[in-house]
Structures are given as C-alpha cells and as structure tokens.
Amino acid sequence: MRKKILCVLLIVLLISTYNIKVLAESVDSLNSKKSDAQQGKNKAETELNNIQSEKKSTMDEVEELTSQLSAIQAEVSELEAQLNELNESISGKENEIKEKEENIKQKKELLKTRLVAMYKNGSIKYLDVLLGSTNYIDMIASYDAVKEITDADTNLINEITEQKTVIENDKKELEEKKTEVDTVKTEKEAKNIVLAEKKSEKDAKVSQLSADEKEKQSEIEKFNNAIASADAEIKRQAAAAKAAAAASSSSNSSSSGGSSSSGGGGYSNNSSGALGWPLPSRYCSYSYITSYFGRRSAPTAGASTNHGAIDIGASYQPVYAAEAGVVLVASYWSGYGNFIMIWHKAKGELYTCYGHLSSFNVSSGSTVSRGQQIAVSGNTGVSTGPHLHFEVRSGGNGSGNRVDPLGYLPL
After folding, report:
1. Is the N or C terminus of the chain more exposed, i.e. has fewer CB atoms within 10 Å?
2. Which CATH class is domain 10-248?
3. Does the structural domain 250-411 have CATH classification 2.70.70.10?
C-alpha cells in the first residue's frame, strides 16, 4: 500500500513537472512572438517618425511655395493694373494724335483753298489793293496784312505738327514701357506656373505621406494588439505554470526552498533579508547601483523613464536566484534582452526578474534554490553597457506589480 502511494505521488510529481515544462515552453514561444512584435513595432514607429518628419518638411515647403505664389500673383495683378493704365494712356495719345492729324488736315485744306484762291484771283486782288490804297504806304500795309494771314496759317500748321510729333513720341515711350511691363508680367506668369507645378507635386507628396502615415499607424496598432494578446496569454500561461508548481509534491517544494548557496564564487546568502543579493558579495553595495527605482531620464533610446528596478554595474558576473522558486520565464524578452522571471511560491505572489543577461544556467520550468546561479550578467536588449537589471514584483495579477527592490535586500 505504501509503495502504491509513493508511486502515485511520483507520477503526480512527474506530471506536474512535465506540465510546468510544457507551459514554460509555451511562454517562451509567446515571449518570442511578443519580442518579434515589439521589434516590428519599433521599426514601424521609426518609419512613422521618418514619415511624419518628411511630411512636416514637405508641408513647410508647401507653405513657402504658397507664400511665393501669393506674392507673385499680387505682382502679376499689379503689373496688369499698370498695363491697363498704360493701354488707357496709349489709347488717349492715339486719340490726341488723330485729333491733331484732323486739325492739321483741316488747316492745310483751308490754307490750300486760300492759296489757290489767291493764285487764281491774285491780279485782281492785288489790283484792288493798289487801287483801293490811298497812298503807297497804305498799299504796302494792306499787302503785309494779307501776307500775315497766310503766314499765321502756316505757323499754326507747323505748331500743330510739332504737337503731334511730341504726342507720337509720348505714345512711343508708353508703348516701350508697356512692352517692358508685359515682358515682366510674362516672366512672372511663367514663374507662377513653375511654382504652381512644384506646389502640386508637394501637395501630392503630402497626400501620399499622409496615406503612408495612416498605414504605419494601422501597422503599429496591429503590433500593439499582438503584444497585448501575447501579454495576456503569457499571464494565463504563467498562472497555469504556478498552479502546476503549487500541485508539486512536498519533496519538490523542499528542493525549491533551500536556504544554502549553491552558486559559490563569493555569493553572500544574505539570510537576514527577505531576498538574497543576486550577485557576488563584493557587489552588495550602493556604490554599484547605477540606476535606482523610480523616475529617471532615459539613458538611451527605447529605455524606460519610469524605472521599475535597480541596475547594478556588474560586468559579466554570476547571477544568483534571490530566493527559491520556479522559473516561469527564461528567454529573450524585448527590451529586457535575455530575461529570467522566478516565482517564489513559498512567499506567495512574489517574483524576481533579471534582465540583460549574457547567458542562462536554467530553463523555463526549472526549480531553483536561494543562491543558485541562474545566469551571467550582460548587455543584451536595450542597454547602455554590461549590468544586471533586478526587479521585484509583488501582487496577485499574474506577474505582480513592480516594487522597489531595496525594500527586500539587506544593504
């Protein structure tokens, strides 16, 4: 009977261990998918930033072209007003010229008629002048009067002709000015066409970039959904792994609850703290902490500004389990790089996490004791240099909430 009970317990233990291994492998697979999705999202966000930057630059160019087009259109309108004014002035000069020409024509006709009449009747008229004169002086005076009338007509014709010449010269100057203005207007209109074509090209580019931006945002949303889905499944799998671990036999529980160090290499068990120091004892000092828990400036692109851990400047050193428990995750995990999460089931909902590792000494589903070497610190993931990212999580939401590790370490 006793042998049967032992056999049953052994079978339960084996099944539980197998279930933990299977579930752990599933978590690793999900983490890999999540990591791929995160990398895809990061790439898409970079491309989106580039698109948005190019779109802003193009929109600035469109704004500049619009400003230039407005200025040129204003200049063209002003030139058109000048041309209209010049056309009116030229038209006025042409009317004046026609008027002067008609005046000259009339004066010439009158003078011609008078001269012909004088020519035809010259002897009588002169005889009349001679006979009608009372003396020689009166005769000369009468003759001069006739000559003055003729000379006045001639002078008037000459004066009108001169005025016509002045008007024609004014008209010529106006036409030359009109040609100059028309040439400038033509150049402005040609430039206007070129700028309008450029603006049309830039507008089309903005439209295309807007479409690309929308597509990238949709792509990022898909990655976010994939990450959220993986996170939810990871929590579910982790909860299942924890349940399987909790069902393990008492012998398995005792193996995961040891208090002695199996890592060696100068490890300090730190039995006085709720958790043991995760590195060799020489690193058990504030002087090696390079980044504390809480708000900070991102040390590098992609790093968190709300640091939920402490960073310890240990370059490629042994990393030890801070407490006995079950390894829920031992895989590459997005910005954490190589990552381990341990559930310390003897302490309830308490977890420790170890990031940026260079290598693993355990696998998902492994049962570890306090002080057992589980990895080597490194520089994987989003990291500025070799160090250990050490997290403590507490709570019952499947993987706990980040809390300050210094509240658990005996520094």
Report:
1. N
2. mainly alpha
3. yes
